Amino acid sequence: MPPKKKPRVSKASANSGKIVDAKKTSTAGRKRKAAAPDAKTGKVSESAGSPVFTRWLMKSEPESRFENGVDVKFGIEDLKALPDQTSCWDGVRNYQARNFMRQMKVGQQAFFYHSNCKEPGIAGIMTIVKEAYVDHTQFDKKDVHYDASSTSDNPKWSMVDVQFQRMMKRFVPLWELKEHHLQHRANGGPLKDVALFTRARLSVQPLTPEEFDFILSLEDKEPL
């Protein structure tokens, strides 16, 4: 689920003492040198865990849609309009998407993808500016993302802070990405296994450097 329409100023200071990522709590008090990502896959190989990615695609809804009387609209223009063009990315209620957010590191880039709208596709680029911390909306009974099964002692959901970086030189629509995906599946290419089509329902998706760079290159090319 995307963030809400109303401005979301980061509540990092209020939650800075709470760390929900098990990997982070297990290494508290000692620093571990991060492994370098593979140049081709963008994944960090870990001896006892899943691969870690370094580039992302994050979906949100740019058109009004009401849940329990609340408009959940949040497009890239809404992000641009916020103070410092920065927002927490709250409301994710899928475990795999949450786990991907918990892998994110400050400085990594993510595509801002407009979803559930007349023209879905990639609108711009964001930067991760704060790593995963407790998503406060899970405790708010008035929030559409409230989760009665989550407690402050054992919070289930996390969020990150993102900052607007820039718009794409041109909007890259879903239909165009799908055409490339199908071509690459048939003939080989960087988008043959892209999560946008192999894990389409996820609102937070990992991208390899090859996938990210190919999609980025489309802004300088004419549509198919």
UniProtKB/TrEMBL annotation:
Its main location: nucleus. Residues 55-217 form the EVE domain. Specifically binds 5-hydroxymethylcytosine (5hmC), suggesting that it acts as a specific reader of 5hmC. Keywords: Nucleus, Phosphoprotein. The keyword Nucleus applies. InterPro entries: 5hmC_binding (IPR052181), EVE_domain (IPR002740), PUA-like_sf (IPR015947), THYN1-like_EVE (IPR047197). The keyword Phosphoprotein applies. Signal peptide: none annotated. It comes from the Eukaryota. It is found in: Nucleus. Gene3D superfamilies: ph1033 like domains. This is Thymocyte nuclear protein 1. Pfam families: EVE. GO terms for cellular component: nucleus. Residues 1-48 are annotated as: Disordered.
